[in-house]
């Protein structure tokens, strides 16, 4: 397994395919395995890199000091260490939050963002939102990982024909380091960059399942505050859209990336044309 040390932590990553760089960021309690149904579609066209966040997958698990800001700094360090020029960045759930943080901290880094079933903040503002956040944190701390896994699996994959997805999810979720999972969950609650969205200057595709945890209208609202951004809704899907609707998702993503790669900014290859040299 490829390993790299960044910010005093050893990370597991994968690096497959060739072409423009494409960085895939997984969700909470998951790993690069989130993307198993995307790799066959993406690697013929892109150099696809998947990074396990600290506390996840094959990366070191300390369970201390986690934050979305730290995860984003890890990603930036990875981009620099791997010499990735203007990578496309795709983030699912927590990975989408990391992508938002990275793009607001370093707006010149991404060629594009694809945000899947995510948001630019998880800040409770209403009594019901405080109740829901508190309930989630409480049950995460008191229930065993196996109970959490079974409950989430039923929510994500409720159909009888999705038994394979349910069992795969349970097996992978139970392999989580509990301390690191809880630290990552705490890093999400209270985080937000909604007040900095104007800093994002690359094209953005927001993908929402029609039956995601949060309503489509929530995504539509924050998309309205982005510049070059669009919202696409995938029908008959829940939070794990890349798994439950892989073909539809892959085609949306490939079409978006092809459009960005063929756009005016991609056509500028001469530094003088880009205004990067003095007259």
TrEMBL record:
InterPro entries attached to this UniProt entry: AB_hydrolase_1, AB_hydrolase_fold, AB_hydrolase_sf
GO CC field: membrane
Domain AB hydrolase-1: 22-251
Stored PANTHER family: HYDROLASE, PUTATIVE (AFU_ORTHOLOGUE AFUA_2G14860)-RELATED, MONOACYLGLYCEROL LIPASE
Identification of the protein by name: 3-oxoadipate enol-lactonase
Organism: Halopseudomonas pachastrellae
Record lineage: Bacteria, Pseudomonadati, Pseudomonadota, Gammaproteobacteria, Pseudomonadales
């Amino acid at each position: 397994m490829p390993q790299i040390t960044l910010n005093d932590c050893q990370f597991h990553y994968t690096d497959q395919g060739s072409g423009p760089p494409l960085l895939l960021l997984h969700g909470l309690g998951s790993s690069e395995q989130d993307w198993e149904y995307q790799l066959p579609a993406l690697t013929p066209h892109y150099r696809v890199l998947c990074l396990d966040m600290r506390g996840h997958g094959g990366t070191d698990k300390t369970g201390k000091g986690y934050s979305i800001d730290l995860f984003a700094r890890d990603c930036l360090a990875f981009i620099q260490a791997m010499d990735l020029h203007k990578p496309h960045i795709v983030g699912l759930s927590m990975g989408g939050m990391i992508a938002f943080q990275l793009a607001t901290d370093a707006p010149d880094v991404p060629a594009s963002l694809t945000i899947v079933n995510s948001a630019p903040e998880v800040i409770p503002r209403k009594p019901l939102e405080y109740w829901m956040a508190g309930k989630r944190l409480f049950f995460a701390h008191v229930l065993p990982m196996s109970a959490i896994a079974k409950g989430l699996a039923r929510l994500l994959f409720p159909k009888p024909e999705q038994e394979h997805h349910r069992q795969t999810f349970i097996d992978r979720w139970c392999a989580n380091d509990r301390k690191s999972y809880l630290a990552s969950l705490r890093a999400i609650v209270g985080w937000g960059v909604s007040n900095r969205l104007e800093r994002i200057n690359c094209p953005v595709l927001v993908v929402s399942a029609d039956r995601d945890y949060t309503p489509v209208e929530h995504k539509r609202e924050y998309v309205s505050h982005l510049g070059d951004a669009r919202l696409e809704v995938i029908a008959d899907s829940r939070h794990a859209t890349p798994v439950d609707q892989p073909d539809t998702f892959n085609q949306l993503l490939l079409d978006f990336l092809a459009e960005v790669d063929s756009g005016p900014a991609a056509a500028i290859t001469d530094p003088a044309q880009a205004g990067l040299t003095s007259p």
